[in-house]
Amino acid sequence: xxxxxxxxxxxxxxxxxxxxxxxxxxxxxxxxxxxxxxxxxxxxxxxxxxxxxxxxxxxxxxxxxxxxxxxxxxxxxxxxxxxxxxx
Length: 87
Fold this sequence. Notes:
- The chain is mostly beta strands.
- It is built from no helices and eight strands.
């Protein structure tokens, strides 16, 4: 998926990280603390493109079949998947 963030100043979605490109995105669970995180790393160079906690009450929106978004800590994140199956 392409990891995106919404830039309020430019009023548009921008690629997360230093360049555009696909990231491998994982969901991690910390069993002892009962917490979850979304972590993405760029396939090209392993740059971290997202490291976001998933909190109770998080509002997740499937904007289109291949674009999903949510807000955490006043930042809007988006995942742009290459197919509905990946999403």
